[in-house]
Amino acid sequence: MAASKSRWWALGALAFGTLAIGLDTTVLSVALPTLARDLHASTGDLQWFNTAYLLVLAAALLPAGMLGDRFGRKKMLLAALVVFGGASAACAYATSTGTLIAARAVLGLGAAVIMPLSVAMLTVLFDAAERPRALTVWVTASALGIPLGPLVGGWLLDHYWWGSVFLINVPMVVLALIAVALWVPETYGDRDRRFDVPGMLLSAAGLVAFTYGIIEAGSRGWGDARSLGTIAGGLLALAVFGWWQRRSSAPLVDLALFRSRSFTWGSILATLASFGLLGLLFALPQFLQVVGGNDALGSGLRLLPVIGGLLVGARVADRVVVRTGSKMVIATGLALIAGGLFAGTATDPSTGYGYTAIWISLIGLGLGFTLPPAMDAALGALSPERSGVGSAVIQALRQVGGAIGVAIMGTVLSSGYRGQLDVTGLPASAADAVRDSAPAGVVVAGRLHDPSLLASVQHAFTHGMDLSLLTAGLVAVAGVILTLFFLPARAQRNEAAPEPPVAPLAAAESVA
User: Fold this and answer.
1) What DSSP element (H or E) covers 385?
2) How far apart are CA 238 and CA 62, in angstroms?
3) What b-and-e string marks burial along 75-105, b requiring 16 or more CB atoms within 10 Å of the CB?
4) What is the CA radius of gyration of the chain?
5) Can you give the pLDDT of all 512 residues of the chain as single tens digits?
6) If we measure between CA atoms, which residue out of 221, 368, 214, 359 comes closest to residue 287?
7) Cα torsion at 220, 224, 228, 229 (round to 10°)?
8) How far is Cα 374 from Cα 480, in angstroms, rounded to an integer?
């Protein structure tokens, strides 16, 4: 009984670290205007505050999983939490844009270790019956940071200096450190495995180049030669990485993992669900502020139905999967996501929040049906010895998929917004500012006391958002089709591992 309780305490410790990462993902967005003023940050600096974090995260995910398997996941988690907490404090007290960009890069390094190893620990601590519930807690902790970021960040910026939005991570990290030290057992993968240095370099170069190219294409346009060249270079590096993994005697990623349909399609479907979530979260907070007139705090509150839907959906899915298997549950979840996104395309500037709450709750419900079962299908195919690197592969796919999602959604939204704007009669500088972004358009309309311009900005933004939601909805529909054709009816357990499965609790206790 004590051992059973300690597993759930350990899960709580891992959830604390994940929540800190989720908070950090969104809290920066509400601080950008303040950072631009207080640090004299240019638009390029503001972009790099986020890009530096994402690129280091992408580069370090796969090596982090392997290092955790070899040197001990608990040791690596503790070290990563210290790095994450220290980098958060460095962000809070940064006195220049260069210092903040460097601190954000170190923050990405800490997150790159925490994300895959916290998931890997779930594979070891919980058996097939308990893991879906544990994954629900983990996914919810990660998702909860999305609305909490604007909520907490908005309140802190109203009462304290901008550094407080980063400093809030420190007490959470301290709690996570204490909890991990007390309740998380030490576990290992293959401790005799040699370092695959070429694999590390190739994977890092490929993921960084591909992610950076996608980010640049989202802001420069998909016809930009430099962005397309960077994407092509990243894909080439990843192709060489795959070739090397087949030849290496000690590969960074065992490609036999992808022989498992559960692992491959569970990972892909979790990525597609994340694409839909990010498509929503890229557009909706701006809609709530530009059209609804809400501040960051009010926008965060209005995003809470997504989390409520996720919690309800995950709880129902946990019970239904036992009877029907994961295929139909995940297909239903993706269909709910698609339905919610398509319903969102009927939104216009006059739409009340009640209708918005309904369709974003539907998306949250679909996420609860999709994310925990899809990740469980992928993780269930891993042996404890492979859980570190396997979890890193899942997170890397989701990270790259998220970058692609934001870039595509941003391009579709911007194109739709600019195509519907009416800037007739405006001075050239004002017209350029309005075209640049909808929030800037609202500011210009306020300064000029021009209600017709404000109406044009709000109508154009809503049109662009509807197009982006339609795009994300079509991706979700593709996910339904892929689920029905390729995902096994029931997740296959440890099918990719040649060694016999180790009882999760026994493995944890034997090395504790």
Assistant:
1) none
2) 12
3) ebbbebbebbbbbbbbbbebeebeebbbbbb
4) 22
5) 335 567 788 888 888 888 888 787 777 767 776 777 788 776 567 767 877 887 888 788 888 888 887 888 889 989 999 999 999 999 999 888 889 989 999 998 998 888 888 888 887 788 777 878 888 888 778 777 767 777 788 788 778 888 888 888 888 888 888 888 888 888 776 666 677 888 889 988 988 888 888 878 866 777 889 989 999 999 999 999 999 988 888 788 878 888 888 889 988 998 888 887 776 777 887 888 888 888 777 877 888 898 888 889 988 988 888 888 889 999 999 999 999 999 999 999 988 899 999 999 999 999 989 988 888 888 777 766 666 777 788 878 887 777 777 778 878 888 888 889 988 888 888 888 888 778 888 888 888 888 999 999 999 999 999 999 999 999 999 999 999 999 887 655 554 443 333 333 333 333 33
6) 359
7) -110
8) 12
Q: Which of 270, 271, 383, 377 is nearest to 321 (CA)?
A: 377
CA distance 457 to 463: 10
CA-to-CA dists, residue 289 to 183, 248, 275, 421, angstroms: 42, 52, 22, 18
Question: Could you tell me the two tokens for 413?
Answer: 């939204």
Whether the Cβ atoms of residue 77 and residue 188 lie closer than 8 Å to each other:
no
